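Hi P.,

Sorry for the delay on this. The queue was packed all week, but I finally got your sequence through. Input first:
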Amino acid sequence: MLRFRDELELVQLKLRQQAIDLANAYNQELLKNTGIVLRPHWRKNEIACSLRWRDRHQHRMGLRLWEATVAQAGPGMREALVDMEVERCLFNGAVSVVSRQLWRVRRVLADIEHAESYLLANSRDKNTGNIGESDTR
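Then the structure:
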């Protein structure tokens, strides 16, 4: 379980870097003439981040910005924007799956630790055989 947790944490680090790279690539090339950008979005205590649409001034966020840009774009740019949105959705889905798996693995490890500490705290006394009595009386 510990190895699996470590592997998931490495995957999260790779996804974080991939989010940064995707956002930089799209923002410098395809989105430079639009009013929107892709930004990595972190939640508290998470390593990986999702990609969100933001306006260039960083005041607003969300799919409505993308929809408005698509509505105003020409046919070639519209297709590129749809491709970006599909890639963004797939990427965010991968981040979600890895984050949820990591959360669950950490929960299992905490449950195992709790069970083991409970066993130690409630072990039989060597002298009396009573349950729940400590050996250090």
